[in-house]
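== Sequence, C-alpha cells ==
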Amino acid sequence: MLAKRIIPCLDVREGRVVKGVHFENLRDAGDPVELAKFYSQQGADEIVFLDITATHEKRRTIVDVVERTAREVFVPMTVGGGIRTVEDFYEILRAGADKISINSAAVRDPSLIDHAAERYGNQCVVVAIDARRCAANPSGYEVVINGGRIGVERDPVEWAREVEQRGAGEILLTSMETDGTKSGFDLDITRKIVSAVRIPVIMSGGAGTLEHFYDGFVKGGGDAALAATLFHYGELTVPQVKEYLKGRGVPVRI
C-alpha cells in the first residue's frame, strides 16, 4: 500500500491565510509563506494553497505568494483558485507550483482538463470537487462552485468519473457539510468517490481529531488528507498525526 499523505491547506485571501466554517466566517491564521515553511519543516508531504476568493472576485491567482513560497519550501506545492486557462497553468507552474487545482473553471469548461493534461501531464492536474447534500442526485450530493456559493446540480460521483477520463491525475474532494466543523471527514461521499475512480482522492473538510484521519483512510479509503483549522491553531501537529497513524498500522512517511 502506498504511503498516505498529510497535507496542510492554506486558504489565502488578500495575502493572508484564513479559515472559517462551511466556507464562511473567515478568521486570520497567519502569513502564507511562513506557514508553508513551518509545515514543510514539520514533515508535511505536500502543501496546498487555495486562493479562495479569486474566482468569485474574477481576478488572477496569487503568483507572488507562490514565487516566495517556492524559494523557501521544498515539498510539492499545489495551487488553486481563479485558474481559468492553460496559460494560467503555465504561469503558476513557472512560479514554482508542482500541481494546479481547478474547480469552477473545470465545471464551466471541462475541456480545460483535457488541454492541461495534454500539455503539462496528468500529474499536474488536480480537479477540486466541492460537494454538498442534494437529495435530487443519485449520490445524495451536488457539485458546488465559486467557493461554495453556487450549486450546479451535477452529481459529484459522475463528475469524478468524467474528470478522470479527461485526464485529471488527482481529485481534491471537500464536503461543505463538514468543512471547518472538526466533526470528521464526510466518509459517505468519500467512499463513493473513491469507489468510482482509480486516481488518488484527497479528503478535505472536517478533520478535528487523530481518529478522524484514521477513519478517513481506513473507512473512507482516501489517499491523502487535507487539514487546515487544527493545524493552523496548534490543536494538532503533522508529526502527531503521522505517529498516530503509524502506530495504528497506516503507512505514512515519517
Summary: The first strand starts at residue 5 and ends at 13. Confidence is low (pLDDT under 50) at residues 21-25. The longest helix spans residues 32-42.
